[in-house]
């Protein structure tokens, strides 16, 4: 009898620890203080004179009594690890949340201020400082709002808004790549609605996975969603916008009739080769922001409808693992480097490089870069839901493989997380060529990088599943 009482006491103790689940959320404005600013997300530098909608760092903090984790999703195209690490250090000092239990990511809106130097986009130290401060502030404010909550999660399908953008096309639609070679077998974003298309080179992930957080009396606190859609676009020239990520945050708040403390969050999934075009039967050209609103509305409708079917619980344990790995950097060979130097030297306008000249510049930069780079991977679990964070533009097939092989019932991948290390094609996709594989500051990891990352991520998922 004494042994039975001890076992019951231990079980009750474990339940009490997990039943003390708390959560808090905050959305902090990261729109630039001053205009004009330069935007990232195009081959040529573009300027913005205003913001169509405000940009935010949206944060959710969860605490099960033993482990506290923070998720911060930022309305920006690309954010380097240096900014994230500094923001985490500030927030950790103020909140006590360990830096390795803070997950940060960019949404990948292509109409955001420059937060890192890439291609021909120069650094903006003033905005980098503002962004760092506000990311930390989002964590600090969300942490202050911690209160008793319950969680639920589910998956809904939105298949008609995602298309693989890499296509096998007829020879007439293929040309030489920026390295002067004609050996690519697929083309990114080929002409839509033409007889030149054969088939897409990869799959898409149609699912929206989401974590819903509410108070014990049912008041919405936050919804953290994830969709494998690169971005939507269709923004007026010269305007910043959070794209469909920000619009979803507004629309899900409206659907849930939530107050101003609610924080809707949309994260970018495995979308490195996925966009919103319909290639075989293209849509008519839409007015600015119309496609953004349509995509966000469709997702918000389906997430809202699923809310009533979710089983919420205040009895969910949190686990998190972070690891660093080293990966090789692809370097130009002697012939490519010679060609690159000749192209870059003879550029007519160094401020507005042609495609070939820009890739020449990238080859020179990669030649001078260290031979390896260290990247950060994270896995988080909440009950039988798992979240994977990868600092790349992850191809859809990689995300699907991680989901399929995960030991958890439900898993999703957040891309562009904790830094930026370029596109992540599979070795098979590298062999096909195409834009996402062209060696540059946005595609430079070794060809086996996806295999290494997938293997390590699955080991980390197994680790937290056993805890």
Description:
This protein is an alpha+beta fold and 467 residues long. The chain folds into two domains: 20-164 and 199-327 and 371-466, no CATH class; 332-368, no CATH class. The chain contains ten helices and 24 strands. Helix 2 links the parallel strand 6 and strand 7. The radius of gyration is 22 Å and the shape is globular. The model is unreliable at 1-18 (pLDDT under 50).
List keywords for this structure.
eight-stranded mixed β-sheet, alpha+beta, 24 strands, 27% strand, 467 residues, globular, 2 domains
Query: Can you give the mean pLDDT?
Result: 94
Helix content: 25-40%
Number of helices: 10
Domains (count): 2
Major beta sheet, strand line-up: 7-6-5-1-9-14-15-17
Report the span from N to C terminus: 29 Å
Query: How would you classify the helix and strand content by structural class?
Result: alpha+beta
Poorly predicted runs: 1-18
What Rg is obtained from the alpha carbons, in whole angstroms?
22 Å
The biggest sheet, with number of strands, parallel, antiparallel or mixed sense and barrel status, is: 8 strands, mixed
The number of strands is 24
Query: How much of the sequence is in beta strands?
Result: 25-35%
Principal-axes shape call: globular
Task: Detail the topology: elements first, then pairings.
Blueprint: H1 2-19, E1 22-29, E2 37-40, E3 46-48, E4 50-51, E5 56-63, E6 68-74, H2 81-95, E7 102-106, E8 112-113, H3 125-144, E9 147-157, E10 163-164, E11 166-169, E12 187-188, E13 197-200, E14 207-215, E15 220-227, E16 239-240, H4 243-255, E17 263-268, E18 274-275, H5 290-307, E19 318-328, H6 334-345, H7 355-368, E20 372-382, E21 385-389, E22 393-394, H8 396-405, E23 410-414, E24 423-424, H9 427-432, H10 449-466
């Amino acid at each position: 009898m004494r042994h039975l009482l001890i076992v019951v006491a231990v079980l009750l103790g474990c339940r009490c620890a997990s039943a003390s689940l708390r959560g808090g959320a905050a959305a902090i404005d990261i729109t630039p203080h001053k205009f004009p600013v330069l935007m990232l997300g195009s081959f040529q530098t573009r300027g913005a004179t205003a913001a169509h909608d405000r940009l935010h760092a949206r944060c959710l903090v969860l605490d099960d009594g033993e482990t506290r984790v923070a998720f911060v999703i930022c309305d920006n195209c690309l954010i380097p690890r240096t900014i994230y690490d500094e923001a985490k250090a500030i927030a950790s000092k103020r909140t006590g949340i360990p830096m390795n239990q803070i997950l940060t990511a960019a949404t990948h809106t292509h109409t955001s201020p420059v937060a890192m130097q890439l291609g021909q986009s120069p650094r903006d130290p003033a905005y980098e400082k503002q962004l760092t401060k506000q990311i930390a502030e989002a964590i600090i404010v969300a942490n202050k709002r911690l209160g008793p909550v319950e969680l639920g999660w589910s998956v809904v399908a939105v298949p008609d808004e995602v298309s693989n953008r890499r296509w096998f096309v007829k020879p007439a639609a293929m040309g030489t790549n920026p390295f002067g070679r004609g050996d690519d077998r697929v083309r990114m974003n080929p002409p839509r609605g033409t007889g030149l298309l054969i088939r897409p080179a990869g799959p898409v992930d149609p699912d929206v996975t989401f974590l819903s957080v509410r108070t014990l009396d049912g008041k919405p606190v936050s919804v953290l969603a994830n969709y494998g859609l690169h971005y939507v676009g269709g923004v007026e020239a010269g305007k910043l916008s959070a794209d469909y990520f920000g619009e979803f945050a507004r629309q899900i708040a409206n659907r849930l009739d939530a107050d101003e403390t609610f924080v809707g969050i949309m994260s970018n999934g495995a979308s490195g080769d996925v966009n919103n075009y319909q290639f075989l039967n293209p849509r008519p050209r839409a007015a600015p922001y119309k496609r953004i609103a349509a995509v966000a509305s469709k997702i918000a409708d389906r997430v809202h409808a699923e809310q009533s079917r979710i089983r919420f619980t205040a009895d969910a344990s949190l686990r998190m693992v972070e690891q660093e790995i080293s990966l090789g950097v692809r370097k130009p060979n002697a012939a490519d480097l010679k060609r690159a130097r000749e192209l870059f030297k003879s550029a007519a306008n160094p401020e507005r490089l042609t495609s070939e000249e820009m890739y020449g510049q990238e080859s020179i930069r990669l030649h001078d870069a260290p031979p390896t780079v260290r990247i950060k991977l994270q896995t988080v679990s909440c009950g039988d839901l798992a979240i994977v964070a990868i600092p790349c533009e992850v191809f859809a097939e990689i995300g699907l493989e991680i989901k399929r092989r995960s030991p958890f019932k439900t898993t999703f991948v957040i891309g562009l997380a904790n830094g930026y290390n370029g596109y992540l094609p599979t070795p098979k996709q590298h062999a096909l060529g195409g834009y996402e594989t062209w060696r540059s500051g946005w595609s430079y990891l070794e060809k086996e990088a996806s295999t290494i990352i997938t293997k390590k991520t699955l080991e980390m998922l197994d680790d937290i599943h056993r805890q």
